Task: structure prediction
Amino acid sequence: MSSVVSFINQKGGVAKTTTAINVSAQWAQLGKKILLIDLDPQASATRAIFGDTEFENTIYDVLTSEIEAKEAVAHSESFGIDVIPSEIMLSGIEIILASKFGRETILKRRLAEIKDDYDIVVIDCSPSLGLLTVNALIASKDIVIPICPEYFSLKGIELILETLKNIHTGLGHKVDVRGIIISKYRNRRIVEQVIRDLRAKHTIPVFNNYIPDSIVVEEAHHKHLPMHEFSPKNPAGLALANLAMEMWP
Amino acid sequence: MSNLNPLFLDSTKPIGDKVVTNVELINILLHDDDSLYFEVIDQFGFTQRFALQPIATKKSIKYRAEVWLKYQHQIQYRFVIDSEGQTLFKSAIRETRAGHVISENWEPCFDGDLVTEKTDKLSIRRAEFMRDLKNPLEIKSNSSQPLCKPQFLEQIKSLLEDLL
Result:
């Protein structure tokens, strides 16, 4: 029985993709079979893993029912995971899906046939709270929320929790928040203050392994390698590896 | 954000006794002047016509309409292509109960009585269309009642029942 977990935050630049791809690669290294779905029209996860490779079949084709989900699966040797890539066409898909019957459960239905082939299905969401993200939430059992420890992020978390409540009320689906990931961490007094506020204000767990701000993460993206391979002893690489263990021991 | 945000409305829930039915037609090539319609006839013989709009995905073009129908009520339906005000092609009439989705592969069917003016242009177009078909044409038999025969008394009775 597989588990589906979404990395979600409507705010951009909070390292959703970085954590999603590296945690997935770490899980794969630990022997789990992982499917990563890039649900962001910017295709950051796809680019970080495969570079400029163009894909004929993407999540767009799966959601428009042109192909089956398994036909869009590409394997990454370096990350050790299967990926359903994304493309910019995905940015227009909400218009196509909006009037569909059962528009909110399309992703869940399309994944039904393959999700049990994997231990964990990871969804890298787009930085928005539109129909695509609702589809990701309905398809997911759990979510994790990567944030940068700053004032705006606290407000953002409230918005995500409100969305989860609306999805439970309106669409009858309960999603559990597995935890908050602190990314781009810097050891500053104000950062510590934000994290303290976060822990005090919400009952959601905050993962203990903070991902430090590091240029090496960016370099790993450029080389299309996971951190555990590109720079295993780098503090960010170590933190990502430990975070993977903390999330799914 | 409130609960009224349409993003969080269950699209599968009927509203009143009506449901949104998504009609979708695939694998059809229209010429510039052609229009594609979905015709639905209710149990009282009342005909409604809905234009199908093209939705282009990466790999194909679908034609789609959103139709409000009384849930589980008996309907007859067919697809029609018009060109310059004249009917070019019609599919066979099908009968079903109104649900959320009607999905039908185009099965060409020409009813000579209903295509009133057969101009040269129409004949050419039909011949072209015939050539494109791999399989010989078959008109699907059906047990449908004749179309466009209003049953006003029954319709008024039903409306009164709805009101009461």
User: Anything to note?
Assistant: Chain A touches chain B at residues 60-61, 64, 66, 89, 96, 99-104, 129-131, 134, 159, 162-163, 166-167, 169-172 (CB under 8 Å). The longest strand of chain A covers residues 176-182. Chain A has a mean pLDDT of 92. Chain A is about 45% helix and 15% strand.
